[in-house]
Amino acid sequence: MARPINEEKRQERRSRILEEAVVLFAENGYSNTTTALIAQGVGVTPGTIFQYFPSKEALFYAAVLEPLADIQAKSLACLKQEGTPSELIKNMVEEQFNHIYCYTNELRLVQYVLGQRIRFPELTQKVLESTKVMTDTIECVYAKGQLMGEFNKSFSPAMISRAYISLLNGVGLTLGKNIIHHPEWGNLKEHALYLFAPTQPKEKAREFE
Amino acid sequence: MARPINEEKRQERRSRILEEAVVLFAENGYSNTTTALIAQGVGVTPGTIFQYFPSKEALFYAAVLEPLADIQAKSLACLKQEGTPSELIKNMVEEQFNHIYCYTNELRLVQYVLGQRIRFPELTQKVLESTKVMTDTIECVYAKGQLMGEFNKSFSPAMISRAYISLLNGVGLTLGKNIIHHPEWGNLKEHALYLFAPTQPKEKAREFE
Amino acid sequence: MARPINEEKRQERRSRILEEAVVLFAENGYSNTTTALIAQGVGVTPGTIFQYFPSKEALFYAAVLEPLADIQAKSLACLKQEGTPSELIKNMVEEQFNHIYCYTNELRLVQYVLGQRIRFPELTQKVLESTKVMTDTIECVYAKGQLMGEFNKSFSPAMISRAYISLLNGVGLTLGKNIIHHPEWGNLKEHALYLFAPTQPKEKAREFE
Amino acid sequence: MARPINEEKRQERRSRILEEAVVLFAENGYSNTTTALIAQGVGVTPGTIFQYFPSKEALFYAAVLEPLADIQAKSLACLKQEGTPSELIKNMVEEQFNHIYCYTNELRLVQYVLGQRIRFPELTQKVLESTKVMTDTIECVYAKGQLMGEFNKSFSPAMISRAYISLLNGVGLTLGKNIIHHPEWGNLKEHALYLFAPTQPKEKAREFE
DNA sequence: TATGAATGAGTGTTCATTCAT
DNA sequence: GATGAATGAACACTCATTCAT
C-alpha cells in the first residue's frame, strides 16, 4: 500500500531532476553543467541525483530523448488527424512554431547534440531516427497533397520536408528568447508554410499587394 | 641582434593552432576540448598554445570570430558586386551553400555559441552583431529587388532575410558531413532561392512540371 | 534527515588543516607550499582541502590571521588584569617571550607577510591593524606607569612600545628553534624588560654586579 | 684589447641583474619572482639571465649574500676604527640604522631567508656565519667597554649583542618604507644605544626630565 | 531513502631552462 | 653575446561518483 505513494513521489522527483537538467544542460552545455548544480536547482543533495539516474551521462540522455519523444508525438499527432493534407501541414507548422517557444531548452538540447555528432554518436543516431520518422511522415502527407493539387508538383517531397525541418531548427537557433514578440514572428510562421508551395495562397498574397 | 622576420612563422603557427581549435571545439564543445589535445593536434607541447593565445578562452573567441569575419566578408562581397538584385541574391545563396560545406566546423562553432547565449554572452553579442550586418544588407538588396519587380512585393524584407538565414543555419545543423552528395542537395539550394519568392522562376518551374 | 552534529568533526579537521598549513607555509613560504603537501600532512586527499577553504589563498589568510588573533588576545589579556603598570608589562613580556617559543611558526608567518607587503597588501593591512592595537595598549599602560613613577619619564611611550615590538620580532627571527635552551635566553628576556627603563630594577641589577 | 671593455660591460650588466633581483625577490619572495620578470626589469630577454648566472637559485644566492657581505664590511669597519668602545658602538648603531633605510630590500631578503631556514639551509648557514662575525665583534668591543667603565657591567656581552641585532632586525621588519620620516625614528635610534646600557647617558636623560 | 564528506583523476596555466639563429 | 620560441613538469582547483551514517 505504501509503495504506490512512494512510487509517485519518486516519479515526481525524477521529473523535477530531468526538468532542471534540461534547462542547465541547454544553457551551459554538458561538461559545464555539474551534477551538483542540478541537484542544487532541484533542492536535493549531490548524492540524490545518482539514486534516480545511474550516471551524469544517463541523465543527459534522458534529458535529450524524453522531451524529444514528447514533442515528436505531438507533432505527429497533428499529421494523423482528419483533414486535407494542406490542413494537416498547416496545423503542424502552427503546432511546431509554438513548440519553439514552449520547448526552447528541449530543442536547443537536441541541436546541441546534433552539432556535436562525433562526441555524442549514440544520441545523434537516436535523434536522427526520431527526425526521420518526422520527415518521412511529412513527405508522405506532402506527396498526397501534391496528388490532390494542394501543393506545387514541381518540388520533391523529400527536399521540401528537409527544407522545412531546417528552417524550423534555424529559427529556434537564430532567434532569441523573445521570438514570439518579434514583429516578424507571425510573418515568419506564414513563410514557413509558403515554403511548402501551396497552390492557393492567392487570397493571402493579394491582401499585401 | 633582433631576429629577422620569423613574424611570418609565428603567424603560420598561430593559424595552425586556430585551425585545429576550430575543428576540436566544434566536434567536442568548449569544456570537452583540452588545450593539450589541441596542442597535440598541432604537433606542439601543451605550453606552446599559451605563447600564441593568452588563455583557452581567448583561443575559443578567436576560433569563433575570426573565421566568421572571413565568411561574412565573402558573403557581403557577393552582394556588393555589379548586377541586378536577384542576381546578387542568387550568387550569395550559391556562395553560402558552398560555405556550409567548406566551413562546416566554423559554422557549427557559431551555432554552438548561439545555442548557449547565457554561457557566452559576449561572444553571442558579437556573433549577432555580425549576423545583423548580413541580414541588413540582404534586406536592403531585397527591397531594391522588390521595387524593380524581381521579388514578390507581398513579403517583408526583414522577414525574408531572417527566414533565409534561419534556413541556412538549419541546413548546416540538420545535414551531416556528406550533404553535398545528398541527392536532394541541389534542389535544397534552389529552394533556398525560392524562399525569396522571385517573380520569374517560371522557366525553372516549368521544367519540373 | 539532516545529519546530526558532525559540525564538531568538521571543525576538528579544519583545525588540523590550518595547523599543518601554518607549519608548511612558515617553513617553505606561500608558493613553495603545495596544497597537496598540506593535504598529505593532514592525511587526506588533495581535494579535501577545498571542502574547508575555498582557495589556497584563503587558507593562507586563515593561517596567518587566526593564530595572530589568538596570540594578540592572550597578550592583551595580560595587560588588562589587575596590577600596577610595571607588573602588567612584566607579565606581558613573560607571556610573549614564551609565545615566541610556542608559536614559532605562527609568528614567522606574520613576519613573512610583513616582509612582503607589496605582495600581500590586504594581509599586511590586517596584521598592522592587529599590531597597532597591541602597541596602543602598551603605550597606554606605559604612560600610566610613567605617571606613577614606575618608568623613566624621559622616553616617549610610542617609541618604547615600538622598540619593544621590534625587539620581540627580531628575537623570533634571529634565534633558532632552540632559543629556549640558549644560555642567554633568560638574560635576553630580562633585557627586554630593561628596554622599558623601569625605575627600580636596582635589586636585580645589583645581583649581577 | 677588446676584452677589458667587454668584461666591464659584463660586470655592469651582472650588477644590474643582481640589483633587480634583490628588489623583486625581496618584494615577492623566491618562487613568486620569475626570471622573466627580472629580465624584463633589467631590459633584457629571458635567456640572457642564464648567461650571467647558471640558475635562478644561483642568482638568488648571489642576491642574498653579495649585498650582505657589503653591509657587514661597512658595519665592521665602524668597529675597527680608532676611538673608545662607546664611540665605536655609537658609530655602528648610527651606520646600521641608516642601512635599514638604504638597504631595505637587501635586509628584507636576509630576513626572508632566516625565516625559512629549512627551505634554505645552506644560505641560512652562511647568513648566520656572517651574523656571528658581527655579534662576536660587537661582544668583543662591548666587553672592552665594560672593562673601561663605559657600559654597565651587569649585562652579558653575548646577550647584549644578540639583543641589539634582534632589535635592529625587528625595526627593519615592523616599520615600513617611510621609517625615516616617522616622528619616533630618531628616538628609536637612541634607544638602540640605550640598550647597550652606557654608563653616562646622563646628560641626555636630564634633558627630557 | 537521503545525505554530504571524501575521493582522485583530470585540466588550464606557469615558468625555469634550452638552443637554433 | 644576445635572442626568444619551445619545452614539459608541476600545481591549484574541479567534479562525478561513492558510501558510511
TrEMBL record, chains A, B, C, D:
<dbReference type="InterPro" id="IPR050109">
    <property type="entry name" value="HTH-type_TetR-like_transc_reg"/>
</dbReference>
<dbReference type="Pfam" id="PF00440">
    <property type="entry name" value="TetR_N"/>
</dbReference>
<dbReference type="InterPro" id="IPR009057">
    <property type="entry name" value="Homeodomain-like_sf"/>
</dbReference>
<dbReference type="InterPro" id="IPR001647">
    <property type="entry name" value="HTH_TetR"/>
</dbReference>
<dbReference type="GO" id="GO:0003700">
    <property type="term" value="F:DNA-binding transcription factor activity"/>
</dbReference>
<dbReference type="GO" id="GO:0000976">
    <property type="term" value="F:transcription cis-regulatory region binding"/>
</dbReference>
<protein>
    <submittedName>
        <fullName>Uncharacterized protein</fullName>
    </submittedName>
</protein>
<dbReference type="InterPro" id="IPR023772">
    <property type="entry name" value="DNA-bd_HTH_TetR-type_CS"/>
</dbReference>
<keyword id="KW-0238">DNA-binding</keyword>
